[in-house]
Design brief:
The protein has one domain: 3-Layer(aba) Sandwich (Protocatechuate 4,5-dioxygenase, Chain B). The chain is built from 8 helices and 8 strands; from the N terminus they run βαββαβαβαβααααββ. A 6-stranded mixed β-sheet has the order 5-2-6-1-8-7, with helices on both faces. Helix 1 crosses helix 3. It starts with 7 loop residues before the first strand and ends with a strand.
């Protein structure tokens, strides 16, 4: 991939293993994930920031052949036989750690951690051959938005090294809300999603204005309804930081309702 700059993408990863079980409410997401891989090209390696791993400091998986982690419960037996035998990349894991440390933040590696469903579920659909090395990067458990944007800024140059950066979370993540009236969920999630799309894709805001808005995301319309806890939003902050450090611009590539909630995905090129 010499001379090629890879994109950055933030994707919804679905509920547990359901996208791999062809669950009907995930049809649009399954279609999207199956088709987006070919548009992203064939990277040298993939770095995934998953909503399902929080650590005291930014941490990368450094196993040669990481296992998958079934970090879900109550699903059919077949969901505990899923595999994604992609190789790891200890050298990339160490390189990511060094980039973050050099930026003035703390980072480390973990040689025993496997790939959770925030990583192996979307990648199974995006890159089913599992022949591209994968490293997973944790969130930091303070859940500070500025810190995660800064992590992104630290790793943005990976784009020039053939590494595809994938943020795996959800632009809406309030499981309790899905038990409420569907019109209420649709309306409130749409308000937040409209704000989020404006911040991420608008040409009328400066980079600093966008960054400030994401740092203060809780002030957005229906923000805390859409994200009672922000772990599924923060992978987007990392992607944003990586994108602005390399002057990438964003477009919406998934604009659908799932379980009555408005959900988006974003691609930076």
């Amino acid at each position: 991939m010499s001379g090629i700059t890879t994109p950055i993408i933030f994707v919804p990863h679905g509920g547990g293993p359901m996208p791999l079980l062809n669950e009907p409410n995930h049809r649009s997401l399954i279609h999207f994930l199956k088709n987006i891989g070919s548009k992203l090209g064939q990277p040298k390696a993939i770095l995934v920031i998953s909503a399902h791993w929080e650590a005291d400091i930014a941490t990368t998986t450094s196993a040669d052949n990481p296992d998958v982690i079934y970090d879900y419960s109550g699903f059919p037996a077949e969901s505990y036989k899923l595999t994604y035998p992609a190789p790891g990349n200890p050298e990339l894991a160490q390189h990511v750690t060094q980039l973050i440390n050099n930026y003035g933040l703390s980072a480390s590696t973990n040689a025993t951690r496997g790939l959770d469903h925030g990583t192996f579920v979307p990648l199974t659909l995006m890159y089913p051959l599992a022949n591209i090395p994968v490293v997973q990067l944790s969130l930091v458990n303070t859940l500070d938005p500025q810190h995660h944007i800064d992590i992104g800024k630290a790793i943005g140059k990976l784009r020039e090294q053939g590494v595809l950066i994938v943020g795996s979370g959800f632009s809406f993540h309030n499981m309790n809300a899905l038990q409420l009236d569907s019109e209420e969920v649709a309306h409130k999630s749409q308000l937040f999603d409209t704000w989020l799309n404006h911040v991420i894709t608008s040409n009328s805001l400066s980079i600093q204005q966008k960054e400030d808005a994401l740092i203060q995301w809780k002030k957005a319309p229906k923000a805390l309804f859409s994200h009672p806890r922000e772990e599924h939003l923060l992978p987007l902050h990392v992607c944003f930081g990586a994108a602005i450090s390399s002057n990438a611009t964003a477009i919406n590539v998934f604009d659908e309702f799932m379980y009555d909630a408005k959900v988006s995905a974003f691609l930076w090129q």
